Amino acid sequence: MSSLYHPTVARLTYRALLGRRRALILFSLPGLLLVIAVAVRALSGADDQTADAVLGGFALATMVPLIGVIAGTGAIGPEIDDGSVVYLLAKPVKRPTIIFTKFIVATGVTVVFSALPTLLAGYILNGNGQQLAVAYAVAATVASITYGAMFLLLGTITRHAVIVGLVYALVWESLFGSLVGGARDLSVQQWSLALAQKVADNGAVTSEVGLPAAVLLLLAVTVAATWYAGRKLRTLTLAGEE
Amino acid sequence: MTTIAIDNVSRWFGNVVAVNDVTMNIGPGVTGLLGPNGAGKSTLIGMMGGFLAPSTGSVTLDGATIWRNEAAYRQIGIVPEREGMYDFLTGREFVIANAELHGLPDPRAAARKALETVEMDFAGSRRIATYSKGMRQRVKMASALVHEPSVLLLDEPFNGMDPRQRMQLMELLRRMGEEGRTVLFSSHILEEVEQLAAHIEVIVAGRHAASGDFRKIRRLMTDRPHRYLVRSSDDRALAAALIADHSTAGIEVDASGGPEAGLHIQAVDFTRFTELLPRVARDLGVRLLTVSPSDESLESVFSYLVAA
């Protein structure tokens, strides 16, 4: 089998993701976003500025990276931890195929649980006024792809992937990114905002990074992380050996 | 007919040498890899299974390097020691997934056959999370057998199994060996290995200590000098009588009254000495208060083998 996608690997991965306790977080965060959206709309009516604050401040800055951490690291970390990855590795399946399949699943799950709710919340908040709902959903989608690759790599190289991922997502993306100028240039959130800026009405969304640079960086990080994860998996020395 | 050749293989982790210049060939039939815990058995099996690169030397399957060679898994079935195995699946789903990963033309039929072989078809629709240790082990076996490999590698397969499950698995492995498959299993229990394996490889502290059939290994193990700590109502009288017999090689009298006080006896003929001691004590009218082997741990048995 020379294709880059293996349906069995995909099935095992998404069943693991949606079957464990992590699934609760996968469902609760988007649920929270929708509750906030409905509450805000009911209490203060449709308002573009509030919509921008909720979608940019909570959905893209916090929810997308968190879901990305859970889906990305969860797509491979627990298997390496408990040793069950042996059953994938001891097969005539190319290691890059395993990684690429898991990347597709992690990204898909992140899109479904973050980009889709973002779109929905946007419509609830202000009925897609100034194209905000679509713009942020596009940003969430591209961010999902890059996060998927980054956190999958993290799950492959460290046993503390969730912690490291959370620190990155919360400290770097949410906190640092909004306080320190330099950090913003190196933030998946800002890169994806560059696309949102393009989609939304003029001036409704702003990014620190220009569109060409943003696209280039998103692509580069995604490809490099996926490639490196495949390489790591090829020479994975299983934990728990003597 | 498949042979795994291990050629001058060493493997170290940082400064720790786990496997030290081992050379052996594993051919068809059942081979037991015997050694105390931490001897390097798992490291060796890891290299045979392609999960670890040898630091030096080569591990090959009919001449083809196993490390970084996914195609080798068409011929190898692996039963890992660790428990992790997709607990959220049913046993059948798990074995079918393994069959699909092997790219078998009819994964369902192959899974059914494998589950029947390990007598687990009755529980195939239960989730693995609900299985007992022995059932998990059998489903692991089914997943390793599903593509009918010519080589089967099992790391401590009998750990935690009850006697009945142990018998069943032994029977199964014996059958696999008779069918001409190359079956290798590791264990730190001599009795386990000699019941099942026609051929035994002993590994101690990373070194290849002995190789042969179980009679040879057993003889090496029982013929070694045994050390005993004996306390009695008259240590010196007992010592004098015992040293007169050629089954003892040396006796040290420790009259210090400390925790190790008593007679430290080195016996060279195990069987003879075990008959001699009670007879001499009875004839002398000496009461035996303590008779305890002071080096019966498996590690000391094995370290004797290495020195031999």
UniProtKB/TrEMBL annotation, chain A:
Which residues fall in a coiled-coil region?
none
Keywords of the record: Membrane, Transmembrane, Transmembrane helix
Instruction: Return any one Pfam family short name.
Output: ABC2_membrane_2
The portions of this protein that span the membrane are: 23-43, 55-77, 98-125, 131-154, 161-183, 209-229
The cellular component terms of Gene Ontology attached to this UniProt record, alphabetical and capped at eight, are: plasma membrane
- Tree of life domain: Bacteria
Q: Does the keyword Membrane apply?
A: yes
Q: Which GO terms describe its molecular function?
A: ABC-type transporter activity
- Protein name as annotated: Putative ABC transporter permease protein
Automatic annotation (TrEMBL), chain B:
Domain of life (superkingdom): Bacteria
Record field: transmembrane: none
Q: Would I find ATP-binding among this entry's keywords?
A: yes
Record carries keyword Nucleotide-binding: yes
InterPro entries to which the protein is assigned, alphabetical: AAA+_ATPase, ABC_transporter-like_ATP-bd, ABC_transporter-like_CS, P-loop_NTPase
Which Gene3D superfamilies does the record match to this protein? P-loop containing nucleotide triphosphate hydrolases
Q: Which PANTHER family match?
A: ABC TRANSPORTER RELATED (PTHR43335:SF11), ABC TRANSPORTER, ATP-BINDING PROTEIN (PTHR43335)
Family to which the UniProt record says this protein belongs = Belongs to the ABC transporter superfamily.
Q: What is this protein called?
A: Putative ABC transporter ATP-binding protein
What is the organism of origin for this protein?
Answer: Streptomyces bingchenggensis (strain BCW-1)
Organism lineage reads as:
Bacteria, Bacillati, Actinomycetota, Actinomycetes, Kitasatosporales
